Amino acid sequence: MHTAHDLRHIVSPAVRDLLELAAHPDFDRTREQVQRLGGCTRPIALVGHTTTYDATRREVLHSYRTADEPTGRLLLACGNRRASRCPTCSRVYAADTYHLIRAGLVGGKTVPETVTTHPRVFATLTAPSFGPVHNRPTTPAGLQRPCRCGTWHSEDDPALGTPVDPLTYDYCGSVLFNAHAGALWARFTTYLRREIAARAGLSQRALASHLRLSFAKVAEYQKRGVVHFHAVIRLDGPEGSTEHPPAWATTALLADAIFAAATRVRLTVASDTIGDREVTWGSQIDVREIAPANTDAPLTDQGVAAYVAKYATKGAEDSGTIDRPLYCTPCRGRGATTTPTGYPTQCPHCTGTGLAELPASLPVTRHVRQLLRTCWNLGQHPEFAHLNLWKWAHMLGHRGHFSTKSRRYSTTLGALRDARRTHAAEQARIRNGHPAHDPAETLVVSDWRYLTTGYTPGEELLAETVRHNRTNALQLKSEGEVCP
């Protein structure tokens, strides 16, 4: 066994820390905690305790204290949905999203299987043009044509999505569209109900007694840095998925109403700085019927669920931007902090700029850098203060949730997480030999406090081993081999 004196001569802090952990009598418990996280990139460390009492006899049934842990803390997965920040947690998020979307298409998770007979479509709403960009156009037959710049771009050409003429590109329009995309979607759903009601000869209020509009959507960034939405849209009876809509509510009627509603939606952004702007959807609107999974149709319910789940874990970084806030966290982007005596003073972290990183120093394209600058500059104007553009500059102005759903589309992510948490607790109870507890007859007293984020250097080595093993297992699985 290494002694403390021996460990001082080990140059690597990570190896030294790992050896110190390994020398602890309860090292297996530390390794178990790290393995349970599945390779989470930046876990949350908590300290505290929890005790379960018999509510009648006030006897202690079970107790747990982080003070008894080898490291004195409990590690929990970060739960970040972004694949760029935590691949492990994003896979869990994607799996939950897949089951949520699929349940609304084929049933399950409180949704009856009869939902497969309801009219349902997969709609894509895009942004308008803000100026010509480099792309890979194709003919109606699917053959590639040269870009308008005259170049035949390859699929990995970094020029794709960037303006052909940056001087005339509408950067303000791009940022403002992203900032209002959520509001544009909300107005679209209102117009869609109106269009459906008009086709049925009903008022919008009367429509509610005949059917309900249910949907689930996800945002995806195009290479040019603007969001567009993919949505599963379904027609139900008045009570939701448990009722079939009236016979006149067909898939064809739904598709026609979507096109009409998307064309009508308008949002006016009043501005004395850059002039009034009208925010609308683009002309490229796609609506396709969703077929059952056991058919040969090109768009099935299983394929749609997988597609939506894939993009639920992605963000603006797929368009080449950064995946972290641009503003200085200590001063919240103000460029100044307050002294203990209450006087404002220049923030020492950003030297008064309010920026954690200067756009000019970021490893991004000129197009993305200009979008970042536009977000930051517009965000400084009082008339755009409510958009928090400075806060969401790294998202190129988009500040909405990436995946949302209507209330009765299917289950919720919270319900799926609660079910997983309950199952894990039950398995831990069985594994540790604790008796089953009736929630109505037990009392749980807990006290938890946030300590820090991340691993120690030695724990990071253990986590990296877990990630390596999981990556190999997934690769073997994808290749059709049996994992050990």
TrEMBL record:
Name the Pfam families on file. Answer: RepSA
Alphabetized SUPFAM superfamilies for the sequence: DnaJ/Hsp40 cysteine-rich domain
Query: What InterPro entries does this protein map onto?
Result: HSP_DnaJ_Cys-rich_dom_sf, RepSA
**Name this polypeptide is given:** Replication initiation protein
Please give the organism: Streptantibioticus rubrisoli
